[in-house]
Amino acid sequence: MKLPLTWLALLLATIVLLPACSSVRTSTESDRDLFLEADKNKDGQLTLAEVNAMGLPRVFNHFDKNRDGTVTMEEARAVDPDFEEHHFSERDLNRDGKVSFEEYIQVAKKRGGLKKHFAVVDANSDGAINQAEANAYVEKLEAETTANVTE
């Protein structure tokens, strides 16, 4: 699924602690819990692989409104009314009018998953997001959100 840049940034931030994106989290998940859940090797940092493993299914599930394991164009447009047909077609590999999770993952992996957004949070470009980088990114997004609300 092609998501607006802002939504992808919020999704990635959710994975690394953003409190403002409750639509992607369950009410029992704290920001710290999400970071710890994504940190599979328990080293206190998130790699791109860890972020993709947690983030890509969340993106797919955000679009799969009826939870049947596929996304239709109607579901995509329910999330983003401007969702473009060619973005859907690029992911509907078997041309059945639905994008399965497997199709979505296949295309996402070819495109690097959440690599561009990961790089924004990985301020020191060392290939991992640590707590300080996550917190700094969250603070930046919260400030931008506050500024947008007050405008």
Automatic annotation (TrEMBL):
Signal peptide limits: 1-22
Superkingdom to which the source organism belongs: Bacteria
Keywords: Metal-binding, Repeat, Signal
SMART domains named among the record's database cross-references: EFh
InterPro entries: EF-hand-dom_pair, EF_Hand_1_Ca_BS, EF_hand_dom, EF_hand_pair_protein_CML-like
Example of a GO MF term: calcium ion binding
SUPFAM superfamilies referenced in this protein's UniProt entry, alphabetically: EF-hand
All copies of domain EF-hand, residue ranges: 51-86, 88-114
Protein name per Swiss-Prot or TrEMBL: Ca2+-binding EF-hand superfamily protein
Organism (species): Roseimicrobium gellanilyticum
